[in-house]
Amino acid sequence: MLKNVDAVKKANVYFDGKVNSRTLQQADGSKVTLGFMLAGDYTFNTNEKELMTVLQGAMTVLLPGETEWQTFTEEEEFIVPKNSAFQVKVTEYADYSCSYIAE
């Protein structure tokens, strides 16, 4: 649960509007994004370590250094290392959160 957060009003919009998110700044200085992906194939790059949680729908993910795709559904999580890239396939939609993990 998020408490005492400030929302950045401007949306993060990617892939011609097929992926969008809103950034929430928490009182401790950390940030979380809440987002939505429409059907499509995407490649994301990271600068920070990320904890991705699927809230609704599903996403099939190829994580860095892996050869097998994995499907994540409601309430399932995966971690993406910082300074890496990962691929996502969405067949219908995916509602997600992304927490940035300090190392």
Automatic annotation (TrEMBL):
Catalysed reactions, semicolon-separated: uridine + phosphate = alpha-D-ribose 1-phosphate + uracil; cytidine + phosphate = cytosine + alpha-D-ribose 1-phosphate; thymidine + phosphate = 2-deoxy-alpha-D-ribose 1-phosphate + thymine; inosine + phosphate = alpha-D-ribose 1-phosphate + hypoxanthine
Biological role stated in the UniProt entry: Catalyzes the phosphorolysis of diverse nucleosides, yielding D-ribose 1-phosphate and the respective free bases. Can use uridine, adenosine, guanosine, cytidine, thymidine, inosine and xanthosine as substrates. Also catalyzes the reverse reactions.
Enzyme class: transferase
Coiled-coil segments on the chain, per record: none
The protein, known as: Pyrimidine/purine nucleoside phosphorylase
Protein species of origin: Candidatus Enterococcus ferrettii
Keywords annotated in UniProt: Glycosyltransferase, Transferase
Entry similarity comment: Belongs to the nucleoside phosphorylase PpnP family.
EC id: 2.4.2.1, 2.4.2.2
Gene3D superfamilies: Jelly Rolls
One Pfam family per UniProt: Ppnp
InterPro entries, per database record: Ppnp, RmlC-like_jellyroll, RmlC_Cupin_sf
Keyword flag Glycosyltransferase: yes
